[in-house]
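Exercise 3.2. Students should predict the tertiary structure of the chain below and write it as structure tokens, then compare their answer with the key that follows.

Predict this chain's 3D structure.
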Amino acid sequence: MKGKADLAARAWRLLGNGHGFTAPLRWRGLLVLNYHRVGDWDASPLDRGVYSATVDDFAEQMAFLAREFDVITLADLPHARRDPKGRYVMVTFDDGYRDNYDLAFPILKRERIPATFFITTGFLDDQPLAWWDRIAYLVRQSTLRQLPERPETWGGPLPLTDPASRELAIKAVLAAYYRTPGTRTAAFLEDLARITDVAVPTDLTDGLWMTWGNVRELKLAGMGIGGHTHTHPLLARLGPAEQVEEIRTCKERLLDAAGVRTRGFAYPVGSPDSFNTMTRAILLANGFDLGFAFYGGHQSMADLDFLDIRRTSVGVHLDQRMFEAKATLPRLFAR
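Answer key:
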């Protein structure tokens, strides 16, 4: 990221810090920004990698978008597609964390920005600890000095000697989980729990996820609501029947619990190998005709694939200068 930040600084100096000098470079099309959590990331015992911004940073980012761009939501996307000269930004959130409602929603209302929230319906129904948060908690709380070798998953031993090495170990274990077939993920987590010998407190998920009442309030305030499966598996790792179950259940729970009829769906993880042709067909069969990925966020309207709409990440280490560069020069900074 440092290399990109240095490049952004040089570009900003040449362009007068973005004040009036970017007109010749004004882009057209759609830029979709993806957030997960908002808040105090460095105090969290869970996965800090899913934090996108502090409250202050998020407020500054939304104020900039409100001044500079047309920010749209799911319902506006078909119209925007018919406007090839438009310059549109979408703000999206994945999973359904409660801080989206408690901390981000008031800022969105103040700035009159219509964000879109992709909900993992089982997280709201059952209030579980998501697999990435479970992995992070187990590794962070373990008293081991290293995780032992596991050739079939994360490979060689992983040091746990200081906070930095633990964060690297968490990333390595998460990457190994991503590669694990869907039929073996439960065994993966059970093995990690045995190795780390950490008990997960029963109250760890208290207030972690939104309620269905929160989702209904977001809907009434004009926010977009979309689906994000029922339990957040990597869909491409599942067979057709399991994919149908995840997508159909998500659709039904959004309607039954929140009265939401939605066309929008975000693929869990969102990398090109996290969904497949079967996934796309199942989405269409269940009334989802807008599918959002997560591997670069700018595209022209002319070549927009409605079942592979790319999004770009916003992370806690993205300062305001780099955020403005990403939004203003997405061909360089939002790929």
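Discussion points: Confidence is low (pLDDT under 50) at residues 20-24. Residues 240-258 form the longest helix (19 residues).
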